[in-house]
Amino acid sequence: MQQSTRVRTIAETILSRRGRVSFVEVLVELGWVHQKNVDSWRRGELDPLSKAMSVSDQQLIEAAETFNIWGGLRFSRDTTPNVSATRDRRTLRITAGSDTQWVHLRFRKTEDRVRPRADEKVPDLVVLEARDEFECEECGEHDRFLMMESQSALCMSCADLDHLVFLKAGNATLSRRARKESGLAAIVVRPDARQRNRIWRLGILVEPDALERAEQQCFDDEEIRARRRVKDAERRELLDEKFMGQFTIEIRLLFPKIPAERAEAIARHAALRGSGRVGRSAAGQALDERAVRHAVVASVRHLDTDYDALLMKGVPRQEARDQIWQRIDQVLTGWS
């Protein structure tokens, strides 16, 4: 009874939060299986999923039946079997030999308003970067990449993926287009040697012709992107000039006697895009009085005192600031 209540409560919570719920998600929330084991299962590295659980197959079937009764006729149901991220897209087993359609069951609130979740789509083929000692379990040859299939590590030739070419990650547009053009594609990842549950995405394997078409598409619109970059740069320049003008005005409001060219120089220095200076901070962008004053003080410290010389002599920073503070105060008083 307690198990049935937990299944229904968890299913209701997930559905209300996401608009859909699968039995596998319920298993994770029950604590019967860890998400990392589910990921391995989807990649075809674990079969059946119950191997990573501490409960019996009978308990799984009972929980699945409870999940089915809970959903009833209230929600749209889908019993399409889970498939692996391997070349053969084989049906994944949850129990060793007594799977029913309910262990693959999913419910969602509506047919058209809820977007399909990524983990409910056919999973991507996943290829691992091979370690130095890797040998294919079918042919015994070495390879740069491997694919896990039925818990066997296969080289690209034995996995029928040797006709694909590797496209390194880094150019999102090219990768997206190549993957769209390719009838067969796989994601290439590298398991983190220090963190077992973390992987690094290295790139994708795609068909050579698809890569050529994607490269041509990128080449064809390079001129368009170049013009867009020029326009964006011009727009940013205009915004920067406007902001520097506003920053200059704020400086002169705080220090009416400051020379105009000095106020402009301070504003240009403090508000330079990408500099990380006070003018680019949130307070600086908001033209906060303290941020404006800070920019002026910093300019006086470096240009109107021997602060930099003291630092070069090895004087500690705070001690150097204490020594030149009176001079800063004199300059600011003269500009007020």
Summarize the structure.
The chain contains 12 helices and 9 strands. It is α+β, with helices and mostly antiparallel strands and 336 residues long. The model has no long low-confidence stretch (mean pLDDT 84).
Fold and architecture overview:
- With 336 residues, the chain is of the alpha+beta class.
- It folds into three domains: 119 residues, no CATH class; 97 residues, no CATH class; 109 residues, no CATH class.
- It is built from twelve helices and nine strands.
- A six-stranded mixed β-sheet has the order 6-5-4-8-9-7. A three-stranded antiparallel β-sheet has the order 1-3-2.
- Pfam families: DUF2293.
- InterPro entries: DUF2293.
- It comes from Kutzneria chonburiensis.
- This is DUF2293 domain-containing protein.
